[in-house]
Specification:
It is a single chain. By secondary structure, the chain is an all-alpha fold. It is 78% helix and 0% strand. It has 21 helices and no strands. The longest helix has 33 residues. It starts with a helix and ends with a helix. Na(+)/H(+) antiporter that extrudes sodium in exchange for external protons. InterPro entries: Cation/H_exchanger_CPA1 (IPR018422), Cation/H_exchanger_CPA1_bac (IPR004705), Cation/H_exchanger_TM (IPR006153).
Amino acid sequence: MAEIEKMIWISIILIIIISVKDKLKLALPILLVLAGLILSLTRLIPSIEMSPEMIFYVVLPPILFDAAWNTSIPDFKKELPKISTLAVGLVFLTTTIIALIVHSIIPEFSWPMAFVLGAVVSPPDAVAATSITKNLPLPRKLTTILEGESLLNDASALIAYKCAVIAIVNGAFSFWNAGFQFIIVSMGGLAAGSVIGFVFLKLHKYFNGNSSAETFAVVLLPFATYSLAEHLGCSGVLAVVILGMFLSWNSFSLFSAGSRIQMGHFWDVIIFVLNGLIFLILGMQLPKIISDIPSSAIPVLVLYGFFIGIILFFIRLFVLAVFPIFSRTQPEKEKNFLTRHKKEYIILSWSGMRGVVSLAAALALPFQDDKRFIIEQRSTVLFITFVVIIFTLFIQGLTLPKLIKLIKPAAEEEQNEKELKKLLLEQSVLFLKDLKADHKMTQSIINTMTQKLEKEKLIQQHGAQPYTYKTYWKKGYYELELKLADHQRKELVRSYHKGDFSLEMIRKKEWELDFWTTTIDQEIEALNSHISVTKE
């Protein structure tokens, strides 16, 4: 079966799984990996080979760019010391400890190969963490640390991995050379991402506000940046992360409203498809991975994988206990045993799922060294890595959402949203008061708008008001608008079928109706939220 046919069938299966996800009440990555394992065992669809190039050059750049784009730069800077502890210190410590343990317990495992396995399983997966914790009530600080760690730890792990692979291939390893290489590769990646972002900033004016051209350029940039950085011997991961943050920081003034809306929808689809396909294909890799493993060795290697998965958790727990990730700047007033910072420690300790980057690194391990000798234990590294991924995804991934709902960490999103709304209202009132009218009609409009904003400001200051007849009247009004929009849409379709108007004109009016409907839906959702809060 041709690769394109396999992708079509796998995509169809992906759509079916997504449609039943809510009924099964499982996190999507878990469900997709499970489905992939079932497909691989039943051989209903021939497996698609997951090559390292596909992961590093096709899947990783857009996912990293999207995560960096949606990262709050001020929050990231504030939590950078803690993020660095996890993304650099924890990764290198994990690599070393796993190497020591593996070299001790697995027969004939060389030091370089032990360090390779340590580097491969050391970074938690960015896709798994964000997919599983998405839409869960997490504190802002904890979310920032988790997302920041997932952005940077791949770079640290891949640099350590490359150093270990060089030692295997060349038969020599130098600690000082490895440290020097880490600095050069990291700084080179940061420089490459910054330069490409700056160049795009200067060339952007030549797009002349063309939303489609801007969207295509931004989609292409992560792939080009990663490829260029890697060819220059720098960290492609860091280059893409810096590029995403740089463009996100400048996006408010760089792109038009239309471009931002179009890019947002386009990126949502890309990331959704990539995340879905990659976990489904990951689960389908089992036949290839066990093909070089003797049947008698599989149970023992599975136990090794489980043991390493447990050790990974305890290493993470140890680092979080020793280093003050969450400092107590204010005395805790909670009387419960599980105070806020303890809850955050528990969640952060349990958020160490491994994923596609680990498997891609294991698959990228060469078959032969410089002297054309076959590298032994390559298949062992690959199999143990797969077991660790499945173990952490199913054990930690399945229980993490339930753990978060059970211990209920304090999420500040609702309060933060109120504070932001208050700030915007205050600044809007000040802007209108300073605005000079051109004539009487303009002043009348300014006064009316100022009074409206002052009223909203007063309502917010006194908290949520009881749901009144007016609230229900507004809700009924918006629902009537929805019915009106639906009626207009039916008239559009009828007119198009009769051939009264051109398709271009019909599409334009349809887009206006869609935008109108989306706005009304948001207003109704806000009213429903207001009613539910006041009822409580």
